[in-house]
From TrEMBL:
The keyword Transport does not apply. Pfam families: Acyl-CoA_dh_1, Acyl-CoA_dh_M, Acyl-CoA_dh_N. It comes from the Bacteria. This is glutaryl-CoA dehydrogenase (ETF). Gene3D superfamilies: Acyl-CoA dehydrogenase/oxidase, N-terminal domain (1.10.540.10), Butyryl-CoA Dehydrogenase, subunit A, domain 2 (2.40.110.10), Butyryl-CoA Dehydrogenase, subunit A, domain 3 (1.20.140.10). Residues 242-389 form the Acyl-CoA dehydrogenase/oxidase C-terminal domain. Belongs to the acyl-CoA dehydrogenase family. Residues 136-230 form the Acyl-CoA oxidase/dehydrogenase middle domain. It comes from Arthrobacter humicola. Pathway: Amino-acid metabolism; tryptophan metabolism; Amino-acid metabolism; lysine degradation. Its cofactor is FAD. Residues 24-132 form the Acyl-CoA dehydrogenase/oxidase N-terminal domain.
Length: 396
């Protein structure tokens, strides 16, 4: 389907675009153009070589998608729906690129913007919004993934006065961008509970090692980090962040973006399968002419349309200030699960050709295995919803 109008017709049967404003559509088209011009031509090579294209960082800053939902300090200050649409288009290119935007904006920048001092905001946020500086968000540990309350990383006071610094010891795992970050947002246990710290790159005692031999998110960076008697000044502390409410508020921002982004990966998988089915001849006619193929395509489209409507509804709730955590869990759980199923089904239409990087569905499926796991597993979001329905927490 080379005609864009026709492609829109077969990807948006419900005319969801009619629910978007002219400004929202303009944001989406700008990010879609960027994805087509800067991500699609290189993504197969980046994925195959397991590299993240760092030169995209300032370009994404110029595009206005870094800290997109934040106000002031050089941040774009766009709506939740506009951010969601951008996440969808970026993940149609690759989950790794959308993940960069999420780690930078929804996690690291949100932590500084929401919980940092005025000096910290002025120092970091403008250059992070421009993509000149990169941030990472260090919460998950080797033995504390879904249960961050059990984290072992500990920060102790370096002295007795309130103006004393800190000494940080511990380890983190699966931390996006850590080896290339200019600043790490590190969550650690203290005598007063969980607190957040800003750790600049090059701080003695910090070692970030990229995790290799990944089968997913290959065009992305995830790291192990160790903290060995890392000395921090009092200015490193995020003063307003106390307890797990700090990191969880950032995670909810990221989870919201995932609900949109997953539908981008699903839509791209569906469109790749649809185009292939119309061109590939078997037994004298296109694959698209067979009932089984049409059923697969229809079932994919049903879930993409429903998932996109769900994401849009969450965005409208968020812009109205009424979005609740259990609603975010519903969106993340449903949309990632359905997107993974769609990407796998799209691969079956492509046959053997679908296992090559000439086509996107299996790459999306592999990436979505990570998306399904990070920012809360299926099981965690199921239990969040279960507690909401029954009033009984069943995490332990």
């Amino acid at each position: 389907m080379s005609n864009e109008a026709n492609l829109s017709d077969v990807s948006d049967v419900l005319a969801i675009d009619s629910l978007l404003s002219a400004g929202e559509l303009a944001v989406r088209e700008r990010v879609r153009d960027f994805t087509n011009q800067r991500i699609r031509p290189g993504i197969a090579g980046w994925y195959d070589d397991a590299v993240f294209p760092l030169d995209l960082a300032p370009e994404l800053g110029e595009l206005g998608v870094l800290g997109m939902h934040l106000e002031g300090y050089g941040c774009p200050g766009r709506s939740a729906v506009e951010y969601g649409l951008a996440a969808m288009e970026l993940e149609a290119g690759d989950s790794g690129i959308r993940t960069f935007v999420s780690v930078q904006g929804s996690l690291a920048m949100t932590a500084i913007h929401k919980w940092g001092s005025e000096d910290q905001k002025q120092e970091w946020l403008p250059r992070m919004a421009a993509g000149e500086l990169i941030g990472a968000f260090a919460l998950t540990e080797p033995t504390a993934g879904s249960d961050p309350a059990s984290m072992k990383t500990f920060a102790r006071r370096d002295g007795s006065a309130d103006t004393a610094g800190w000494v940080l010891d511990g380890a983190k795992r699966w931390i996006g961008l850590a080896s290339v970050a200019d600043v790490l947002v590190v969550w650690a246990m203290t005598e007063d509970g969980v607190r957040g710290f800003l750790v600049p790159a090059g701080t003695p005692g910090v070692t970030a090692t990229p995790i290799g031999q990944k089968l997913s998110m290959r065009a992305s960076i995830q790291c192990d980090i160790t903290f060995d008697a890392v000395r921090l000044g009092p200015e490193a502390l995020l003063p307003a962040a106390r307890g797990l409410r700090g990191p969880f508020s950032c995670l909810n921002e990221a989870r919201y973006g995932i609900a949109w982004g997953a539908m981008g990966a699903a839509r791209d998988s569906y469109e790749a399968a649809l185009a292939y089915a119309q061109e590939r001849l078997q037994f004298g006619k296109p694959l698209a002419g067979y009932q089984l193929t049409q059923e697969k395509l229809v079932n994919m489209l049903l879930e993409i349309q429903k998932g996109t409507l769900l994401a849009l509804h969450l965005g409208r709730l968020k812009d109205a200030g009424r979005l609740r955590p259990e609603q975010i869990s519903l969106g993340k759980l449903n949309n990632v699960r359905e997107a993974l199923s769609i990407a796998r089904e799209a691969r079956t239409i492509l046959g053997g050709n679908g296992i090559t990087l000439d086509y996107s569905p299996l790459r999306h499926a592999a990436n979505l295995e990570s998306v399904r796991t990070y920012e809360g597993t299926d099981e965690v979001h199921t239990l969040v919803l279960g507690q909401h329905l029954t009033g009984i927490p069943a995490f332990r």
